[in-house]
Write a structure and sequence with these properties.
single chain, about 80 residues, mainly alpha, about 65% helix
Length: about 80
């Protein structure tokens, strides 16, 4: 789906190669600066369910092969809802 492509493209931004944030302040700043990040982390896979297009598969593999971006992804997944 187009939304899955958008989410994976967003998660693959170079800025997330910095990996996880080292303080609550930098994490909060990242979430404010990139407001779509939490949504993309939580729902990219839901939008890619079924028989994803080749493009989505390629984006997912490229993203998942980048350890720094995956570390950022997992940190955002663990951010509690307020």
């Amino acid at each position: 789906s187009k939304t899955a492509t958008i989410c994976l493209t967003y998660l693959s931004f170079d800025v997330f190669e910095a990996g996880c944030c080292t303080s609550d302040e930098t994490l909060s700043s990242r979430l404010q600066e990139y407001p779509f990040l939490k949504y993309a982390v939580q729902f990219w896979d839901a939008h890619a369910r079924g028989d994803p297009q080749k493009t989505i598969k390629e984006l997912a593999v490229t993203f998942l092969e980048n350890n720094s971006k995956v570390v950022c992804f997992y940190q955002i997944m663990r951010v509690p809802e307020y």
